[in-house]
Design goal:
alpha+beta, Immunoglobulin-like, seven-stranded mixed sheet, five-stranded antiparallel sheet, 3 helices, 14 strands, 34% strand, elongated, binds calcium ion
Length: 275
Amino acid sequence: MFRRLPCLMWIGVVVLIVIHGAQPARAQTPKLYLDVADTSVSPGAVVPLTVYLQNMGDSIAGFQLSLTLSRPDIMEFTADTMVQTCYKCSNAACTSVVAYPCTVAVVPSSSAGTLTYNWDYVQARTYGTFDLQLTGIVDNNFDRLPLPILPYTNGVLIKVIGHVFCDIPDTLQDRTVFVTANIVGSYFSDPKGTLIQPTDFTSGSVTITPTTRGDINSDIVVDVFDIVQLIDIAFSGGPPACPNNLTDVNCDLVTDVFDLIYLIDYAFSGGQPPC
Ligand SMILES: [Ca+2]
Ligand SMILES: [Ca+2]
Ligand SMILES: [Ca+2]
């Protein structure tokens, strides 16, 4: 036994050398994560989408990222139309450019509290409600401020919001939207303008829960708060339920006082459940 110990030690040393020698070089490309943690929401919900960056050793001075929603019939990026300055070549050789006003669809986004909070330019645009292009340039006016994202800095890059439609029929079987970061059309740039392809994309999913007639505030229980909201909608011009038919608890295709009576009867007197 004692004669075997030195032999085992040598094997251990050889194994250590092999492991050390086989370690790959440190990856230098950034990783991109989408935080859509396979969540379930009700119709009409606003869904925060967080894009994370794990920076594996580059200085990052710009990015262009492409996100897509798989189900434009269920969810969208809501955009505000804005007039901005665009540029085009003024001659065939494009030796100079001219500025002109152009209309763009800007998706509300936030860089507050993120790695890009003080960048000169960060914007989210859509060209068809289900796709999103995120663009950021750290120093748009060449005054060398602010600094790029330094190597080995990890955190949230930008936050955007998706919006689930109200009028999703309960009969719809497939109720899941995949949110995907597309490799094509997504890259970072270092301060010299060298493109850096991000790796390790992740995608998330948003599943829309079925609704229940009478649960007008979509909190999964039918109680006095739904009755208060029904009164507000039916008699005080309050904002409609989402989806609209949640208030028609007796399923006669209109919302009126009979729905209120029906819902009170169900909630407090053991009456028939909503249709
Ligand atoms: Ca600047
Ligand atoms: Ca409720
Ligand atoms: Ca009704």
